[in-house]
Queue: 3 jobs
Job 1
Amino acid sequence: MKITDVKLRFAKHYLFVQVYTDAGIVGLGEAGNWGYLQATAAAIEKFADYLIGKDPHNIEAFWHDACRDAYWRGGVVLMSALAGVEMALWDIKGKDLGVPVYKLLGGKVRDSVKCYANGWFAGAKTPEEFAEKAKIAVENGFSGLKWDPFGKAYLNIDPKSLNDALDCVAAVKDAVGDKVHLIIEGHGRFNVPTAVRIGNALEKFGILWFEEPIPPDDKKGIAWVRSKISTPVSGGERLYSRFEYADYLRMECADFWQPDVSHAGGIMEVRKIASMAEAHYIPVCPHNPSGPVANAATLQLAACTPNFYLLETMSSD
């Protein structure tokens, strides 16, 4: 079997990759990188020059050749492009062999996948409205609720804004009790002392994790925040390979890892990242506010990854 063509499809803020073969099998992938899809598309077009005429089953060879030939290694553009193509190659392999991708990665270790909701709060402004939306999300079967209650605060947060955020968390906690996990998103926008202040204030709510409390480029800073608060810390959606996660591991940055299949080099790269975490008893909860193809690919990983814990899902999609 040989690759004959690579085509790109844009839909809203999604970029889909179609890899065609001479056997009539078409593989489908999704490249992330919202807001910079044209740059990602240009990288995929460069990969197409390499791919045409190659055997689509040789996924590792493609991945390593693509990285070796990129002088400016890593980064969101290259790794998102690589992820979209790699995903499509796994789709071809599964279709050609007649099995789901999770069977090619060792087989399933669970029969169902627990999901937490993002976007469940759409339209809510007051604590009472958040509480009502939370009840609906719980009724829909989600195992956790994630949101960012901090308004427009950046780097610092004033006392009123912090109290408003805590009132929102309290209202949701009162509404759903212990039925689901509560997860607080920081979007990587606070400075170190503010993140510590917020993390300690969240302790009384039993939050599952405080996500990206400070900008993700400062791994030492994230580790320092984690050492100063009792609320667990998560992160990793803006890390793009196992090589970056190696630093995350050495510095003990997070209690939960969140690689994204559409950013971090694709299915096998996330599987390797998860294996690194598994060796240190760290749960993996993939970042996944993405389109349907990335969601399908992440479900394959969730099926076969022993230390998978929760999958992010956009409840409004």
Job 2
Amino acid sequence: MQDKTMITSRLYGIRDLRVERAPIPTPGPEEVLLKIAAVGTCGSDVHYYLEGGIGDAIVTDPITMGHEFSAWVAGLGEGVEGLETGQLYAVEPAIPCGHCEYCEHGHPNLCPNVKFCGTPPIDGVFAEYAVMPAENCFPLPDGFSPAEGAILEPLGIAIHTVDLAHLKVGQTIAVLGAGPVGLLTAAVAKAAGAGTIYITEPLAHRREFAMNYCAGAAFNPDEEDVVAAIMKATNGRGVDVAFEAAGAAETPDQAAHVARPGGKVVVVGIPSDNTMTMTASVVRRKGLTIKLVRRMKHTYPRAIRMVQKGIVDVKPLATHFFPLERINEAFELVAGYEDGVLRAIIQMGDKS
């Protein structure tokens, strides 16, 4: 008798991540069964792993994490047309309700009823199989690797982040934090015509990567006053747009200080203590526009084209690969910022 179970991982509590077996799910109408190809270990997953929650999203029952992923279609639910079994797809992890005020006005990322993979209590995709709506699946062109397909999700975040800035050609930017989202934000901004790109990052391997990838200058906040360094580099003017991508206690205020009068601050980082502080007199007197990023919207087709055309190269960000059975090793590596890791990828094998 054919085994109808799969390997999955479940987070039971802080640093309590277990590999188990579970039934293979069955797709309903307009859904597809996906054989997971690759999943990225996102910073938000690490928050759940290390802290047991993000804001009011608390892990109270065992949950499967994971939302940055690519997958092969393994089965079609009733009414599904246009998708092919065996085809590799990038998959949008958010399932908005589609009929609230925000969905109807084109902002599904703000849907209060959204079901998002790996956000309590919704299971994610650190598993061999998952079920998702067919409309969430975007076919990947020939030549795309599963890992590239998985990194399209953080690339989509970066695209949405730069969209919010309404960046103009030649404008200067600062990116505070050179993790994958910060690096991709800088790369998208460069593709959009940004002038000089300044990056701040305490980890040496990330600063080196940033300089080789897209940055014009990189500063170490552990060794110098990065606000003073950026202000000096811009002759006291500041940058047109400051992107906060670290989620550290000090970086939102640093972003406000390095933005020029009338400039913009776009916050994409997630603070571990669920608070964000900026000096009121600075943001008020400068008349700053401050925007915060809530995931992404309508970005997958653009992300696919950017990678396909070579506008942004996501391959170098996938630095480490693990099978699902070694997912704990992957999380400990990422949580400890060890071995030059940028994005650790959980690989599930092939489509067979």
Job 3
Amino acid sequence: MWACQFLLGGQHVIDDPRQMAPYLTDVRKRAVGKALAVVLPGSTEEVSEVVRLCREHHIPIVPQSGNTGTVLGSIPDSTGNAVVLSLKRMDRILEVDADNNTMTVEAGCILDNVHAAARQVDRMFPLTLASSGSCMIGGNLAANAGGTSVLRYGTARNLCLGIQAVLPDGAVWDGLYKLRKNNTGYDLRDLFIGSEGTLGIITAAVLKLFPAPDSQQTAFVAVESPSAALKLLNLAKKQADCLLTTFELISQRSLDVVLKHFPDLKAPFPAIFPYYVLMELNGNGSEGQLGDLMEAILQSAFEEGTVLDACIAQSIAQAMTLWALRENISEAQARDGKNIKHDISVPVSQIPAFMTDTDARLQVAFPGCRMTVFGHLGDGSLHYNVGAPEGIPDDDFLARQDDVNQVVYDNVARFNGAISAEHGLGALKHDKNAHYKDAVEIQLMKKIKQAFDPDGLMNPGKVIP
């Protein structure tokens, strides 16, 4: 790695095992990879030079942003022959163009810092993730991250106008277009977004900004079932149209786990209900107008028998408290014990039937298994997590993970869904994806990979089986 030290400076090349450990360890502590070194370039030009050097010596490269991914996509395997290329030094905001509603940033920008820069010009970047304090834009785009605002604003792909990327041969593609109309050939941007670093390394991006809303209304709503939640969603869409930003489904078990491990948080209702919806309206206008709209939606839902109870936040602090019940589910699960996680997507209309059918199949195959289900009902994606039955050690249950996955993924396929909604495939799901995806589609993906990366050096063992 002396050549990388010459290129970047010795302080930006790490080969001490203890210092490398954070870059090699999965965020859930499930796996630890090995690497020749971790390199930290400070510019697109330095990324290009490192990639050229690695190609010359046939060294695989694992691009890494915040290392917050959950599918083993940003750590190397156990062979120890790869270099981890961290983008954390490339954290500059290059331009904010408020009149064009765009922001150009380097790939190592932390999502929270992008939010803050947008607020300074009275704009908003709507990608909202629980890991926003540590995840980076490059990783958000590489995984096509989703989050809680997809219903209104779309995924990371929808929020990006252009990118700059270093190709596997070291060439730099400067596609930092600030255009909303650009019909001049193949959309190369969309190939890189969601490719998890297997086609090249995103080094910068042009992001879409939106007018910052000056009012919001947040409600926590109790419902009998996912079917009732779907009825509420359609009612809210009809009455609120594009003002409906968030519509999250939360099971009672999910809420129980949060209240158990975050005792400072309180249940929103004295009674217990099977399911809840966290919904939010954002817009420009008076707070009272938006409040009247939220009340009208809930009043209609009560009259239809769709809603069992509801509370509307009366302040920003109350809204943040309601959001905490949703945002702390993943952390509460981690504290509660191990479980088998699924990030799945099916058509919105099929969510209730999918949950009913899959729950039943799992109970037949694994009697007493405990479901912790929550997620983005508004866009048809769920975190569908399966825990061990009472009295069964977590590790014993995890030993049957492949069997659990097959039940869930087979049913996802029956409902014409996808086995990864927003977390990507990484090394964890790429082989399963090949089983459920159309063979022609897999072959097309392999041809694209071959065309971009014939030597197979970019994030090997990820996405493509």
